[in-house]
Amino acid sequence: MAKRSDPYSVSFDFPLFSYTEAVRLAADTGMLPGTTGPLLETVVDMLDELGRPDEHFDCIQIAGTNGKTSTTRFTAALLHAEGFRTALYTSPQLVRYEERMEVDGSVVSPDAFRRGVSCAAEAGRRVNARRAAQGLDAYTITPFDLLTVAAMVVFAEARVDVAVLEVGMGGRWDATSATDPRVVAVTGIGLDHVRILGDTLEAIAGEKAAVIKPGRSVILGEGTHEPSVARVMRERCEACGVEPWYSAHELTKRPAHLGDTVGFSCSGPYGSYRYEIAKPVYQAQNAACAVAVAESYLRRALDSAAALSALDACPIPGRFDVVRRDPLVLVDACHNPQSCENFVAALDELDPCVDGRPALLLAALSDKDVDGIIEHLVPAFPRIVVTETLSDRALPCDELAGMVAAALERSGRPADCLVAAYGSVSEALDEFARRGEPLVAAGTITLAGEVAGLLRI
What we know:
Blueprint: H1 19-27, H2 40-49, E1 58-63, H3 68-81, E2 86-89, E3 101-103, E4 106-107, H4 110-133, H5 143-157, E5 162-166, E6 183-188, H6 194-197, H7 201-209, E7 217-223, H8 227-240, E8 245-246, E9 249-253, E10 262-267, E11 272-277, H9 283-298, H10 304-313, E12 321-325, E13 328-331, H11 337-350, E14 359-362, H12 370-377, E15 384-386, H13 397-411, E16 418-421, H14 425-435, E17 439-442, H15 445-455
Helix pairs in contact: 1-4, 2-4, 2-5, 3-9, 3-10, 4-5, 7-8, 11-12, 12-13
């Protein structure tokens, strides 16, 4: 897709929400109810109503179960380092809704956010009014639909060159698929959102592989190399007549302590690189995938020195993230068995001694593979504290405590490894702060976000 050179402007008047109103609507689009959907056509029609803001810049789309947020961030950082005005769209936010949208590495302003949401809401109202006049059912406009359209407006008005878009869920019907990206990547496949996407790797892979279409450059990350997943990806590429690039990396140095560098080598379609970056070891494969994505977009090799600086400095909020140092509080947004396994492996790289680690503050969402999360996280910590986040999908802390207790009994560990259950994240943090004890929080993105919001200064 070639971007348009003419400046973008919204062609109709719209009421401008306050920031508070925009946030409320982004959290719950009850103001925009419908009787059909959610559908991808909803987002397509809203973008059409707005004069296709997404055609004023190039798009790159990153799908996958694990690693897609980091790969999206690394890709945006690499392209910014190459001199492009680069936008980033990711989800969910850790603390504030506008964190989902960045331009050149900075979160968009509250004013830009509320303007984008206001434009998207009016576009949805106009689309549904026209459908009603035609005797058609109104679209159901989800929060992710609204925010995706809002982001396209924000990015077009910011005159970006390229936007790197993280798929929210799946790929086939995801709102970001209403755009026409030049490059797509699938980072990895795991069991996630099984109630919606399917309960096998093959079914989930099929939903995510739908981002592969004729004429697009395709990067397949290392998490797609499992045989059943690889077969789905290969068949989709063959059906679309595209030849994918298979991303890979080789470790050359393992980090020895928190904040130490990981060394790796990797290649893209146009060049080969050897880097050391101050990131956990599992980020090497995400950085390698991003290198291939950026090269595919540029159709040339990267400026190696600029790329190294970009990868090393790229922030990955909520991923092995120290949000307080005294006493230490580290958060990680791992939220399914695969990402929890990666997180634990990174801990083991730094210090294999479980007994010396802080307590784990654990929370989970009810629609996730909680047993799988517990299987990986609980054995990696000497003491477990459970809590419940503010999400309407949060697993009640007493239910989570029961599942942890059962896991401890099965493994033969003492029951007193489960030391407490707190009804809220703030209550748990207050108690550990009072004791001056360090803490690691993991199990769901919403937990990482709440902890970061309460503690980060």
